[in-house]
Write a structure and sequence with these properties.
By secondary structure, this protein is of the alpha+beta class. 19% of the residues lie in helices and 36% in strands. The two termini are 22 Å apart.
């Protein structure tokens, strides 16, 4: 990945230097940056202890990490029992009375 040099406008003397330094760092670490997994994230709200999340980019080797944001109802342990490649995944709680807001982070690879 090569970032083109920036052009300076009146009053932006420090801007050009900062941009070019960032460009040099990113270009120098291109291989490491390219190796980072694809990431998607968002929030969802459980209803009766479950929620289906639509995310077409999820793949069969994706890892889904979930965390409770706002507890509601009778909370339980969170899990992701189902990943449907190209469609999404399900987040469940061990409590059918769990109506919490949860956050998710999906690490690729995505479907191709």
């Amino acid at each position: 990945m090569t970032i083109p040099p920036d052009t300076v406008q009146a009053g932006q003397s420090g801007h050009i230097t900062a941009h070019n330094q960032i460009s040099d760092v990113l270009t120098g670490h291109d291989e490491a940056i390219s190796a980072l997994p694809v990431m998607s994230w968002g929030t969802a709200t459980l209803a009766g202890g479950s929620v289906s999340v639509t995310l077409p980019a999820v793949g069969p080797q994706s890892i889904v990490i979930v965390s409770r944001m706002t507890p509601s109802g009778t909370t339980g342990h969170l899990a992701v029992p189902t990943i449907s490649p190209g469609t999404g995944f399900t987040i469940t709680s061990s409590s059918s009375g769990d109506n919490s807001q949860v956050a998710y982070l999906v690490l690729g690879p995505a479907t191709s």
